[in-house]
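Sanity check

After download, print the first record. It should look like this:
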Amino acid sequence: MVRETLRRMLGKTPYIHTLLFFYENRKYIGNLTGLSERLGLSYVTVRKVVRDLLSLGVLEVLDAGRSKVVRLNKSSPHTQTLFEFFDKIRTLEGSEGARMS
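Expected structure tokens:
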């Protein structure tokens, strides 16, 4: 439900799709190919989105042997603020459901 509300509010962009994926899968660590498969988006699109989210500090890169993987940067103020907003939407949806009952 949070996913649908946020998409209605913010649009159905690859950025929202990626942010919601990491919101729902905070422990995810993977390479860009795996991430693009999980998201159902092209590799080129995911590479651009990840590059932008890396520049904001929302994601971070880890060296995993000869390859690099990305994960959520949980300590980033941008990530924390964004996910607090997502949490508030979830809380609002819960209280609206209780009021409608």
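If your output differs, re-run the checksum step. Summary of this record's structure: Residues 50 and 59 are 7 Å apart (CA to CA).
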